[in-house]
Design a protein that fits this description.
Layout lengths: L6 E6 L1 H18 L6 E7 L3 H7 L8 E8 L12 E4 L9 E9 L3 H11 L5 E9 L12 E5 L6 E2 L15 E4 L5
Parallel strand pairs: 2-3, 2-5, 5-6, 6-7
Antiparallel strand pairs: 1-9, 3-4, 8-9
The protein binds 1-O-pyrophosphono-5-O-phosphono-alpha-D-ribofuranose.
1-O-pyrophosphono-5-O-phosphono-alpha-D-ribofuranose binds next to strand 3, strand 5 and helix 3.
Protein name: Hypoxanthine phosphoribosyltransferase
Subcellular location: Cytoplasm
Organism: Metamycoplasma equirhinis
Length: 181
């Protein structure tokens, strides 16, 4: 496969992602096999390739919903200012909520989203993220399940991750060359 010239190194190729995401879909199937009211909430925009791949192997009924939050505003550094730009459409009271995210980094975004959604009295709330960067936490938070752990210094692009809002469509996750950061 042709690798984008701005990529220094591929961290997770297409096949590695597909295998891991199948495993995560199986986790969803097991965790929610008795649930009658599952709502999967994707945090746009980064979750999109992950969520699209994940749901192909989810074999239980669920409702899909989305939220848009923003913290990075197109740069590599977190501004620390998490905004809810678009709220989800469904009422989650007494429902099982699974939030699907591309990465938990400082955890500012997820801790804010979870606290907002908890106040709406769901039956349960869990977080599934493709990538986890525990060494960069500003807020104490752990997801219920993650795909891969990455290092603090890994600035990732592709498969939903952007560089200045671009490069989200790459079918793999890579590290940008130093002169692009
Ligand atoms: C990114 C990412 C997470 C969040 C993680 O979103 O998708 O939502 O930052 O960072 P944190 O743990 O430090 O809060 P971003 O605001 O860049 O939006 P995007 O999904 O549109 O890329």
């Amino acid at each position: 496969m042709q690798i984008d010239s701005r990529i220094e190194k591929v961290l997770f190729d297409k096949e590695t992602l597909e295998t891991k995401i199948k495993e995560l879909a199986n986790w969803v199937n097991l965790e929610y096999k008795s649930s009658e009211n599952l709502i999967i909430v994707g945090l746009l925009k980064g979750c999109l390739p992950f969520l699209a791949q994940l749901i192909k192997d989810v074999n239980i009924d669920f409702i899909m919903d989305f939220m848009i939050t923003s913290s990075y505003e197109g740069t590599a550094k977190s501004s620390g200012n998490v905004k809810i730009i678009l709220d989800m459409a469904n009422n989650i009271e007494n429902k099982d909520v699974l939030i699907v995210e591309d990465i938990i980094d400082t955890a500012r975004t997820m801790s804010k989203v979870v606290s907002i959604l908890k106040s709406r009295n769901p039956k349960s709330i869990r977080v599934l993220t493709l990538l986890n960067k525990p060494s960069n936490r500003v807020v104490d938070f752990e997801p219920d399940k993650f795909g891969f752990e990455i290092k603090k210094t890994d600035f990732v692009v592709g498969f939903g991750f952007d560089w200045e809002e671009k490069m989200r469509q790459l079918p793999y996750i890579g590290i940008l060359k130093a002169n692009k950061k």
